[in-house]
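Q: My labmate handed me this sequence with no annotations at all. I'd like to see what the chain might look like in three dimensions before we decide whether it's worth expressing. Could you predict it?
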Amino acid sequence: MDMSRIEKIDDTRWTVLMGPGEHRAPVILFGTESLLLAMDDKVLEQILNTSRLPGLAGSAMTMPDAHWGYGFPIGGVAAFDAERGGVVSAGGVGFDISCGIRTLRSNLSVDTASPDFERLADELFSRIPAGVGEGGETLLFPGEIRQVMEGGAAWAVREGYGIPEDLDFIEEKGRMGGAQPDHVSDQAVKRQQSEMGTLGSGNHYLEVQSVERIYDSEIARAFGIFSGQILVSIHCGSRGFGHQIGTDYLMRFAKSASRWGIVIPDRELACAPIRSSAGQEYIGAMNSAINVALANRQMLALIVREIFGRIFPGIELRTLYDVSHNTCKEESHRVGRNIRSLWVHRKGATRALGPGHASLPEAYRPFGQPVFIGGSMGTASLILSGIAKSESLSFSSASHGAGRAMSRHEALKRFRGREVKKELESRGILVRSHSFRGLAEEAPEAYKEIESVAEVTEKAGLAKRVALLRPRVCIKG
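A: Here is what I predict for the chain of 477 residues:
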């Protein structure tokens, strides 16, 4: 990233100097100088474009893991006030609406489980549908898809995919209100009919992990985490359903921008006034996709429980938490002296509520929301907890991963999938994938150093580190 216009606020916050005659909201970049220098210049261009959109409240922000995305940078956070002409942007949510992480905690230790990792890897790979366009075990009719759109994980639990207790540990208790299936295209519904309970491709994964390090023992106990424990993380979203909704509304917004008097600095930032009919219809469709993603992860969790139950009789796999990192939600936040209702876009950024928030599970309320920073096959993942300070700093938002250090195209030139798999297995990490190309694109070296990202996330006051996890088995598309 070109640092010539960037001014340091403190060790983890930076701002971008205003040019002559420039009209935009402030920009805050979270990270160290080394992390910013490692970012593509496109990140700066995209967050500056975001800061020029109407009705933006506070600052447009990038998290420490930010990298180039579609319209908004991945790792971008921006909040808009509907009463002040604020907009909703499909590019600010992303195509994989409600992509997120569900983490399950077990009563199993790594020493007990490790002799069965090979069998576990093979059975998970045989049962978990993964890959581009890969269908699942469940084929739903359009009317059933409508029920998923309205019910989310709560629908899945009613259908036998898990237990009611799961819902207490999912954002929105497993069901996002405000879904409007009537504003979802037939094409989106068609794409999702065979994709429920599937993982997808790209950076999505299902990973068996062990707790290697605990940073905060009190919060770890509250989350049910102990040293050497086996956890399972499921990283996926709304699949082709969300992608189709994003495509449908980006085209619609781009065609209508001039009618609303909106000057779009980049066509990829096509947006609509929140109070417009198009804006409201997108929000209703997006909320439908959030519910599809929550149901999808709920269904995958059941498959995981069935496989673990066969291999490790008597095992318990409870939901630690499930939270998305590609959403736009209406939330109350303080801006200056006033509490305002804002539409917070988090694209490749996770919600990170602090202690005391009413929407948190009672067991977690004194400690803050579990926050997941996911790794990439050979790298660690981290569990953090939300802290009160992040509400004023970042609208209660934090990093969601390490962030790419190189494009997929560059990774393909530098790495070979077979070699990546072999190297990981030499380190005791069992990888199963349908695509060697995908393994090359997702090589651990293609990402920034995740422990540095987590450390900076904590130093910046966005979330507090609780535990570090190491991959043991990884299922990829």
